[in-house]
Amino acid sequence: MNYKKSVFISVFTLAAFSFQSCSNSNPETTLTTEKPINVTLGSFAKQYTGGDINVTGQVEAAHSTNIATRIMGYITKIYVKTGDQVKAGQLLFSVNNADILAKKGQTAAMLSQAEAALHVAQKDYERYNTLYKQNSASAKELEQITLQYQSAKANVDAAKSMQNEVNAQLTYTNVVAPFSGVVTQKLAEEGSLANPGMPIVTIEQGGSLQVTAMVPENQIAAIKIGDIANMEVTAAKKQFKGKIIQINPSSQFTGGQYIIKASIPSNETKKLFAGMYVNIKLVTKEATTISKNDTSSNTVFVPVAALVYRDQLVGVYTIGSQNTALLRWIRVGKKEGDKVEVLSGLNKNESFILSAETLLYNGAPVSIK
């Protein structure tokens, strides 16, 4: 009796152990039976599709330049101030020229010495040339005198070149206006040290104005030279039409923005001043779209609502091969409205999860609506 009881207990224990082992042999059973989360997919945002383009620009002079000197020296006198009207050739400022005047005296003395030596060498050349014809001087003597004469002429030419150089430097110490206009900036004071290329004053040519604006890269392709620009200057209470006259084809130094310039009619420049802000509406002639199969552009925009933030990382959920949520880390760029540019980590041919009914996590089973 005790033997049968012990056998029964052993069999029961073994069956219970086997059942427990079978229940733990497939830990992923819960994942496969978990209810999928309903999600909505999104695709990359199309670029500008045509219509009106609204940007903000500024009025500027059509011809503006910074006036500088080509030599180093202390500014002795500035003859203009901000707001002054100047004429072409008018003296703007002077730089100390004491050292250049000293060089001018040296070059003048060198030129006089060289010319005197040339005069003596020329007399000797003429005399030996006559003696050689009379067989009173040898060919070697004539050749030596000829070389001395040519050397004297070369010394005179060198002295004249040095004198011209000094005279040119002297003109840089008295800087004049290259064209008629108005002084808009005075960037230095008397007594300060001027370096070559350092702006001292800024001059703008009056009467000719234009508007400069920046256009995002997803809209620049829709703009053409000659397009009509409807402009409004709120500060001057003016509205007028202009034309696109210039489009900068590069955005390397403007942070992805492309500079455009629009003309202002000459009869609309009254009450307009450089620096005023302008609201610009461009009516484009052609629509510019980028389809999903177009490989000519790699620009990808996704809604901000689809982004997932983890500390300093940014990502989006994509669909894995087993219909599971897969968190993809990306690098984002500029923001435009409710969308943000994806610089890396997501191709424009890939879909991503735009929204989900419940909270997603990496590896969660999903069902596409």
Structure description:
The protein is α+β, with helices and mostly antiparallel strands and about 375 residues long. The chain folds into four domains: about 35-50 and about 290-369, conserved putative lor/sdh protein from methanococcus maripaludis s2 fold (Beta Barrel); about 50-60 and about 210-285, Beta Barrel (Elongation Factor Tu (Ef-tu), domain 3); about 65-95 and about 175-190, OB fold (Dihydrolipoamide Acetyltransferase, E2P) (Beta Barrel), CATH 2.40.50; about 100-170, Helix Hairpins, CATH 1.10.287.470. The protein contains four helices and 22 strands. The protein has helices spanning about 1-25, 30-35, 100-135, 140-170; strands spanning about 35-40, 50-60, 65-70, 75-80, 85, 90-95, 175, 180-185, 195, 200-205, 210-215, 230-235, 240-245, 255-265, 275-285, 300-305, 310, 315-320, 325-335, 340-345, 350-355, 365-369. It has a six-stranded antiparallel beta barrel. Helix 3 packs antiparallel against helix 4. It is elongated, with a radius of gyration of 42 Å. It starts with a helix and ends with a strand.
